[in-house]
Amino acid sequence: MSRRWTARLALATGLAALVVLVVFGGLASLLLMGVGWAGLALTAAGVWWMLTHTGWIRALAVLLVVVAPIAVLVLYASAGLLWVVLVSLALWALAVAAGSAALAQDSASGMPERSVVRAERPYLIMNPRSGGGKVERFRLAERARALGAEVVVLDPDHRQDVAELARRAVADGADLLGVAGGDGTQALVAAVAVEHDVPFMVISAGTRNHFAMDLGLDRQDPSRCLEALTDGVELRVDLGYIHEGQPADGDPGRVFVNSASFGVYAEVVQSPAYRDDKARTILEMLPALLTHAGGSLLSVRADELALDGPQAVLVSNNPYQRGDSAGLGRRERLDSGVLGVLGVEVANAAEAAQLLLPGGQGRGLTAVTAREVVVDADAPVIPVGVDGEALTLSTPVRCRIAAGALRVRVPRNRPGVPRGSVPMDWRRVRRLALTMGRTAAGRGAA
Hints:
Blueprint: H1 3-25, H2 28-52, H3 55-78, H4 82-104, E1 113-115, E2 122-126, H5 134-137, H6 140-146, E3 150-153, H7 162-171, E4 176-180, H8 183-196, E5 200-203, H9 210-214, E6 232-244, E7 254-256, E8 259-263, H10 264-269, H11 278-290, E9 298-302, E10 305-308, E11 312-317, E12 339-344, H12 349-356, E13 365-370, E14 372-377, E15 381-386, E16 389-394, E17 397-411, H13 426-445
């Protein structure tokens, strides 16, 4: 279906959703809509109180989160209008999906790639524990050696310096470095690849493989990444660098391929109790962290923008797509030359409700881009999560972007970057539905 007709479908089903609600619900539909939004607001506020309190207040908040939506449904059913609401919601969901699909085709094309000659002496480092044993399950080492690569499988019982292994390999003549492992290991070896200007190869053998996903690689079958050894193309992508304390001459900082997180998440994962009981540790620590009764008080400067006292900050190598940032799903590009910055600052239940309601951003969420971000605190050191690695860094902590720093070798044929959700813009949808038709008609007349 063309973009024009997809946009028209969005407008038609959106209008139908309103017609169903008004025609079959009558004037009561307006009251029902108000009751529905009130229920959502109470549920969101209940979530905030549940996270920021303990004891009997948390118990009441849990009860509110459960009872509020049920009460709304019971009210709809008792008025005999539950089916009206469900049909209207289904039509509205279809309208939003169609509108997003039409707008998604406006998104930017993929990152430019160039053809390259086959590497003569590729050197791959593989972590047998990553991804629950994907290296062994997919016979990655055996397959890579058959394609002419030198492979080092790390000893899980002894810690090894992967960066040093990579530097020795380059000194011995390696003309490509690659990693089958998690994003933290990828970042360490990528830094060596940049240092010596050799291409870097990602094998999606980690648990989440965010970097591999945003490169468009196959995350289900990591053996397909090995096709880059025989039929590969090269991408130029950005890297993030993080520095602690006062900058020192000649110190490039630590590389991150995905993100650096500060505040609530970083504080929780560094708790000694987190590994033993994640859920309980989170529930015990969140009240103090979210209300600033515990943890460090952060201040952030992203280029010219200043944030004082955010509970959580995430700095990413290129911004996450709008509408997908809550789940940190994906980045459409890795070559935009800017950092993505997400800051969360919620002071009360009302602001939490604005943030958590569907489609609502509210004043509690800041989403910007910057070339440099400085995070300071009222403490000499703060916990930081860098590509999933828990670190403790001296303040101030600086993040910067190195545009096009990394040469990445990827298979010519790969799944591609999955599209995320596109923020709904009804004005753009209406414009697509109407003006594109006129443009097409004008061309036909010409």
